[in-house]
Structures are given as C-alpha cells and as structure tokens.
Structure prediction request, 328 residues.
Amino acid sequence: MSKNEQPSLLVVDDEPANLRVMKQILQEDYRLVFAKNGAEALRLAEQKKPDLILLDIMMPDMTGFEVCETLKKNSSTKQIPIIFVTALDDETDETLGFELGAVDYISKPVSPPRVKARVKNHLSLVQADVLRETRLQVIQRLGRASEYKDNETGMHVMRMSHYTQVLALAYGLGESMAENLLNAAPMHDIGKIGIPDSIMLKPGKLTDEEFAIMKTHPQIGAEILGGDDSELIMLAKSVALTHHEKWDGTGYPNGLKGEEIPIEGRITALADVFDALTSKRPYKDAWSVEKTMDYMREQSGRQFEPKLIELLEQSLGDILEIKAQFLD
Ligand code: C2E
Ligand code: SIN
Ligand code: SIN
Ligand code: FE
Ligand code: FE
Prediction:
C-alpha cells in the first residue's frame, strides 16, 4: 500500500444494511469498495487489489468460504488478508475458515472498535512482512555488490554464509538466529567497496601501508550498514565490524578478546577464513582441506574460539557438502 494513500478494503456482504454499518465504521480511515455477492467480490478483488477483505460467510449462490478458497488459489489475490465477518459461531466453521487461509474472524453484530482494531492490526502485520522482505532483498543486493569488488565469485559468499548457518545451529543458537546469520554473513566484506582496486586486486603480498588501508574495511562496512535498527541489518553490521577480531585479542579493528567478540563475529571469522584458505585468491593458491584443518586446529584459542573449532570438526561433513554444492 502506498504511503500517502489510505489503505483500501473490500467489504463483502449480501445484506445492504451490514454494508452500511461497515461503511460508517471504516470510511474515515480507509478507501472502501463493496460487493453484494461472491462473484462481484472475486471480480473486485482481482481488479482493485484491496489491501484487506472483510468477507461475510452466509451468502446465497457462493458462500464466503468458496470466495476465500477461490481467492487463495489465484496468484494475484492470494496474498490479500481475509477476515471473515459472520453470525455463525460454530467452532468447526472457524476451523474451516482458518484452513482456507483467513487471518481472523469477527462476529456479528459487529462491535465498531473491534472491527477497527482487527483491521488495523492485520494491515500492520502485512506492512511488517513487506518491510522484512524488502530489507532482505537490499541486503542480498549489497552482498552481490561487494562480490564484484572482491574479484571472488559469488560462491565464496554462498559457501561461507552457509557455513555460518551450520556452525550457529551446532553452537545451539537456534533456527532463527542461524537463518539471520545466513542472510547477514554475505555482508561481512561489504566495506571492501571502499578499498582501492590497486590494493584489492594486487597479485602479491600487501605492503604494511597497503594492509593498514585494507584493515579499514570492517569499519567502512559498519558505516555502510549503520543507521538502521532492523534486527537483520544490525546483525549484518556487527558481522562486518567484528569478522577480523581474534579470540586472543590480536585482531582488528578493536582488538576485542574472547567473548567480547559477539558470537556472530566469532562464527563468521571462522567460516570466512576456512573458505579463504580452501579457495584460490589473487594472492594465494587454494589449500587442501587437510592443510586448512591443521591450520584451524593450530589457531584454536588464538585466532578462533576453541568451542567453534570443535564444532567445525564435528560438522566437517556438512561443511564439505556445502563446499561441493557451491563450487567456483
Ligand atoms: P580474504 O582474502 O577474504 O581473506 C580473509 C581472511 O582469511 C584473512 O584476513 C586471513 O585471516 C585469512 N587468510 C586468507 N588467506 C590466508 C593465507 O594465505 N594465510 C593465512 N594464515 N590466512 C589467510 P586478513 O589477513 O585480515 O585479510 C583481509 C583481506 O585482506 C583478505 O580477505 C584479502 O582481501 C586482503 N589480503 C590479505 N592479505 C593479502 C595479500 O597478501 N595480498 C593481497 N592482494 N590481499 C591480501
Ligand atoms: C466469532 O465468534 O465468530 C469470533 C469471536 C470474536 O469476534 O471475538
Ligand atoms: C477485541 O477483539 O476484543 C479487540 C480487537 C482485537 O483483538 O484485535
Ligand atoms: Fe574481511
Ligand atoms: Fe570473505
């Protein structure tokens, strides 16, 4: 729904008196479209794409249940939330309505504050979904942008972000955090956008001066991702800022130590380095998994949290499956 316009509602009821009541309750806050039967409701839903539908159940010809079922089968109308408005108060009817995809029930005779509250509530849920989806898309595009700069294929980001998900689950952080990390980890090197190509693409070893510039990429990344308080973007910012910190406190940019480093940074650091070592870079050849694992073990308690190295060992089967799935 557009920002400057009132949201639009389609109100469906075979009884004109009921439509008038709804009009009185809702006309101040919404643009309203009315339908007196199921066929008209289907036509208007398709044509006007309302933000929400208030649907009577008991109607001649086509019941509200049938209207709902038809709308949910049509890809252009299936996402519109439907609230049933009904005089029926039979439990099984409510169950059927929810099974058909309705988001709510309001009983008749309707209470005006209840109608207003329910409509408002469901519209804001839709808006929150749209925002979440939009943020995820922006995040994914930013991830693509940083890959162009990095001279790495998108596969590095695919692999390392899936590694972070596996490790987050193994660590016991839960499905939802693991999925957020999967979506946030691709941002870890977004700050490389601010590093000159002459440094980024240098075939050989960086000078101290060049490396000092390279080491500003976490801070640049955090600035790019700052200023938004969504959970996902805050996580991405934290990952960008802390993925080069080391468990023993010798990392950058802030020399954080142990659990001062947020868990998302500890996990991303490990996933990033595992993938960097097993991949070819402009400045290095790919290492074997064996050589990489020797290095990782040797860095337990130095560069990496010991518990994470144990979990890497235990999850190595899954990790190698991901590696095989996203080959360069
Ligand atoms: P990157 O290529 O994505 O590497 C990420 C991290 O993987 C590195 O962070 C480092 O911790 C680890 N890593 C990568 N290759 C090696 C390696 O050959 N040996 C060891 N022990 N670790 C390795 P680091 O060192 O902070 O580097 C950050 C970024 O700086 C790298 O990201 C890369 O873009 C750049 N970079 C680092 N060293 C060089 C270099 O010698 N030449 C060039 N051209 N770029 C470099
Ligand atoms: C219903 O009885 O149909 C729903 C109950 C309610 O609107 O609170
Ligand atoms: C109510 O139904 O009692 C208030 C409105 C709502 O629950 O959303
Ligand atoms: Fe980095
Ligand atoms: Fe990386």
Observations:
- The CA atoms of residues 156 and 276 lie 8 Å apart.
- Residues 86, 89, 105-107 surround succinic acid (ligand 2) (CB under 6 Å).
- The first strand starts at residue 8 and ends at 12.
